[in-house]
Amino acid sequence: MSNAIARMNPDTLPDAGKVGYSQISIANPGRLAFISGQVAWSADGSDVPETLEGQTSQVISNLAEALRAIGATPRDIVQMRVYMTELNDATMVIVMTQITAFLGGEQPSLTGIGVASLANEDLKIEIEMVVQMPA
User: Fold this and answer.
1) pLDDT at residue 1 tops 70
2) How many CB atoms are closer than 10 A to CB 36?
3) What radius of gyration do the chain's Cα atoms show?
């Protein structure tokens, strides 16, 4: 059995593939890893970047490190949830540009969620993932 995640964008739903994600992701039986929400905190304790662009870059770096730690790649991501303190068309373009580059053509299911605040008043974005463990 293939460990590949099946992706779907049925004609009866908006074509999410045009903006870099899938409406439906079907994972195979097996182990799943639940990656806690990553924010713009770095392992070395550096200051949190002030801009959304800078914070997104640090979050993506943290996500990449989490994948590396479990031997996974963006191909193994089943779902991503993006939490933002300012969610609108302009901020989603900033974030999705970096997420799309990180995913390298993979299109997991993705949900954007606007929130009043995150773990610290300086934080603008947090991303969590569900990952199918590689075979």
Assistant:
1) no
2) 10
3) 15
Region 68-86: mean pLDDT is: 97
* Domain ranges, ordered by start, for the chain: 35-132
Quickly list H helices, 1-135: 52-69, 89-103
Q: Which CATH architecture has domain 35-132?
A: 2-Layer Sandwich (3.30)
Count CB neighbours of 134 within 10 A. 15
In terms of pLDDT, which residue wins out, 94 or 2? 94
Tell me phi and psi for residue 106, to 5 degrees.
-75, 150
Q: Taking 90 as the threshold, does the pLDDT of residue 19 lie above it?
A: no
Q: How many Å apart are CA 23 and CA 123, to the nearest integer?
A: 28
